[in-house]
Amino acid sequence: MWATAVGVARVRALETERENALFRDPLAQAFAAAGGMWPSSPPLPDDEAARRRRLAVSFSIVIRTKFLDDLLQQASASGVRQVVLLGAGMDSRAFRMDWPKGTRLFEVDTAAPLDFKASVLRQERAVARCERITVAVDLREDWPGALAAAGHDPTVPTVWIAEGLLIYLPEDAVELLLARISAQSAAGSRMGLTLGSRGVIERFGADAMPASAASMWVSEMPDDPVGWLAGHGWAADSHTLRERAAAYGRPISTPPQREERPGGLISAARR
User: Fold this and answer.
1) I want to staple 137 with a disulfide (CB 3.0 to 4.6 A). Which of 75, 146, 216, 233 is the partner?
2) Which 3 state secondary structure label does DSSP give 177?
3) Helix, strand, or coil here: 239?
4) What SS3 state is found at 131?
5) Does residue 249 sit in helix, strand or coil?
6) Distance (Å, rounded) from C-alpha 212 to C-alpha 68?
7) How far from 204 is each of 53, 57, 171, CA to CA, in Å?
8) Sequence-distant (≥ 6) Cβ neighbours of residue 153 within 8 angstroms
9) Backbone dihedral region of 102: left (phi > 0), alpha (psi from -120 to 50 degrees) or beta?
10) Given pLDDT bands bounded at 50, 70 and 90, which one contains residue 3?
């Protein structure tokens, strides 16, 4: 699945090139190039419907990146100094965002993407803007134990990010992940999640190419994500892609195909 993370980097590289970019990710093109997906990529269906789906997925990646950047900045401003990126992939926030002194950022992922990422970072001579700690562990295993061994302190607040992750996990794995996050979260912790909106698998996954990202999507968000998170001890707000895009000056011009609430962009605070 880490090849998908390289694909996300490609989207972020394209956004970085825009004059009115919502964020700048100087490392994204290096990740994409090293992954063999920039500038060339595997053949893709070239029909209009497939092109629209690719554009929609790319657009959602841009908007969610900006949404979670803002959430992290707000958490830092509130005094949170521990950051955990679950399924970190090619995330470069440790390098491209300004972090307060004392911030420790943990990147949790399997060894293959972390090793690939490390080679690119060495090549680019990238320097993190905070204390960056990688934790090589499969999220199906005892990742809380590995995180604790790496120095994470569950007695102080943490901001957790699960970006583009939960849609790949079956529902029982999503529940387990959230239970584990909650068990490691002191009062005042924050969380940013992206959830697959209702119907997204039907719209994008039904005719997805084998081994494509959409072909691996298995989990959509609950009917009531705010209530679901409240049951785990989190006070959450949900936002739709459409409303966040409008707030960022990138309004979606097409009318909604169906009721778009609740939203798949989630910000939450530990009660």
Assistant:
1) 146
2) helix
3) strand
4) strand
5) coil
6) 24
7) 7, 9, 19
8) 82
9) left
10) low
Residue 266: closest CA among 204, 207, 216, 224: 224
Place 31 in a pLDDT band, splitting at 50, 70 and 90: very high
Q: What is the mean pLDDT of residues 212-238?
A: 78
Cβ neighbourhood burial of 167 (10 Å; 0-12, 13-18, 19+): buried
The pLDDT of 97-105, averaged and rounded, is: 98
Question: Which alpha helices (DSSP H) does 125-240 contain, by range?
Answer: 143-149, 171-183, 200, 225-230
Q: Are 241 and 230 in contact (CB under 8 A)?
A: no
C-beta atoms surrounding 118 within 10 Å: 13
Q: How far is CA 70 from the centre of its chain?
A: 13
Query: What does pTM read for this prediction?
Result: 0.89
Angle between helices 111-124 and 2-17 (to 10 degrees): 40
CA–CA separation, 193 vs 178, rounded Å? 10
Cβ atoms 13, 35 nearer than 8 A: no
